Amino acid sequence: MMVNYAWQEGGEEEAMKDNNVLYETALKQFDTVAEMLNIEDGIRERMRYPKRSLI
Q1: Which of 10, 12, 23, 38 has the highest Cβ tally under 10 A?
Q2: Euclidean distance between CA atoms 23 and 29, whole angstroms
Q3: Which residues constitute the domain of residue 45?
């Protein structure tokens, strides 16, 4: 298992963007659930790009 840190990749958003189909699917599912739970936009945006990720 490898851990990627956002600061090593050049930023939070860039660390998660890699045109990965599974990631895009997960984001769509997250957006659907976040809407159902009425999560605020700012919190929602922060949750989309975590500081760390497991690969």
Answers
A1: 12
A2: 10
A3: 3-54
